[in-house]
Amino acid sequence: DCTKDLRTMKKFAGNKLVTSFGKKIIAIGRNYVEHAKELGNEVPKAPVVFLKPTSSYVKEPNPIEIPAGIGEVHHEVELGVVIGKEGKNIQEDQAMDYVAGYVLALDMTGRDLQAAAKKKGLPWSVAKGYDTFTPVSDFINKAKIQDPNNLNLWLKVDDEMRQDGNTNQMIFKIPFLISHVSNIFTLQEGDVILTGTPSGVGPVHVGQTVTCGIKDVVEMKFAAVERGS
Amino acid sequence: DCTKDLRTMKKFAGNKLVTSFGKKIIAIGRNYVEHAKELGNEVPKAPVVFLKPTSSYVKEPNPIEIPAGIGEVHHEVELGVVIGKEGKNIQEDQAMDYVAGYVLALDMTGRDLQAAAKKKGLPWSVAKGYDTFTPVSDFINKAKIQDPNNLNLWLKVDDEMRQDGNTNQMIFKIPFLISHVSNIFTLQEGDVILTGTPSGVGPVHVGQTVTCGIKDVVEMKFAAVERGS
Ligand SMILES: [Mg+2]
Ligand SMILES: [Mg+2]
Ligand SMILES: [Mg+2]
């Protein structure tokens, strides 16, 4: 109902989402065929699931901070699904009831760190988890998105278009992902599911600017700077 | 000061720690030489760092829930360090100022899932992250622990002693871990660092009971049941 929607919108408005809300970020890897292939990976038979810490959120006008000496850091533009209420073992046909709305997000990835971890069978958490490695937009109420399975996601580095995909290319769709993930982890209000990135990932260097958007919905921009310590 | 200590104790008392506090669990792998060896792993040159979701916390008298069909689930008894205030790039010699106290914890691990993930270079998050895969004790104020680097950690499955180690065997000590981890992720009040497990890990089956403790400090007990769905 309307009262509840207003309450939800208020709660997720502005910086509140990233400072006060959400216990976890659940990210899906290799959820677009062309992206799986571009990194030389098999197309998965089940979702590849990993966690990012909420301490990695950053919002405009703050920059993406690149730690010195960690090698290439890649952009991955993704649609984030914001969970509106607690749930576990959620059925696919009920899943959309658990969605409060969306965010545009970047799943920044220390690609060299990740490649080394993969080779040694080690966790991805460091490669994916540095502070500022999850830039996000303001909260987008779900009423504003007609069809989350047909959104154009795009990303530029400076003036160069790098990623230009559509959520209709996702291997595992949002209701399936919510159901699948909720069978592993209880989902809580404010948790975010990052649904994977289309092809075209590549490095972002200090001094460059990343601009990205969901066509007709939202746009955001982040400068890349070297991390101080 | 004393007022602050009281406030901290109150905030972390009882279930509040696990229901309201903490955004992340940062776990350290292979931090005891004998345990690294028993799983056929090299002794690490840097800490192995991964994330567990706070939705995996469980407290007495609730049971550990083992999902059907995921293979062996292992016990790993660990000392958890509870962070008392926000910090990043923390110096080793300041690190203990960021500690509010401790918890006894189990880092329950889907060992077969983890082995399969390691082989494929995939994340550990699912193997480590199921609901109830992080049993924890009540909060232990740091004033109650004379020397966190000399605590006897033990664990029994039913009547069989399986793990019997001492935190003095940790490869990377608590101040180093806090400093290292805070260079990756901003640490926040209520975050918990799991410091790794001594040798003796092994399977827990449905119907068995896990009892574990920090000698002279705390003891806890969890039944293992099959997870309903
Ligand atoms: Mg991981
Ligand atoms: Mg991604
Ligand atoms: Mg462990």
Task: Name its key features.
homodimer; 229 residues; alpha+beta; Fumarylacetoacetate hydrolase, domain 2; five-stranded mixed sheet; 6 helices; globular; binds magnesium ion
Secondary-structure element sequence of chain A?
HHEHEEEEEEEHHEEEEHEEEE
Total number of domains of chain A: 1
Q: Please state the CA-atom Rg of chain A, rounded to the nearest Å.
A: 16 Å
- The CATH architecture of chain A would be Alpha-Beta Complex
The neighbouring-strand order within the major sheet of chain A is 2-1-13-6-7-10
How much helix, percentage-wise, in residues of chain A? Answer: 10-25%
What is the quaternary state of this protein? homodimer
Structural class of chain A: alpha+beta
Specify the biggest β-sheet of chain A: 6 strands, mixed
The overall pLDDT average of chain A reads 90
Written account of the structure:
The first copy, chain A, is α+β, with helices and mostly antiparallel strands and 229 residues long. Chain A has a single domain (2-226), classed as Fumarylacetoacetase-like, C-terminal domain (Fumarylacetoacetate hydrolase, domain 2). Helix content of chain A is 20%, strand content 31%. The longest helix of chain A has 11 residues, at 2-12. Residues 5-10 and 12-19 of chain A have low confidence and may be disordered. Chain A binds chain B through residues 23-24, 26, 29, 48-56, 88-89, 117-119, 121-126, 129-131, 183-188, 229, and chain B through 22-24, 26, 29, 48-56, 88-89, 117-119, 121-126, 129-131, 183-188, 229. The structure holds magnesium ion (3 copies). Residues 27, 29, 76, 78, 107, 194, 196-197 of chain A line the site of one magnesium ion. One magnesium ion binds next to strand 1 of chain B.
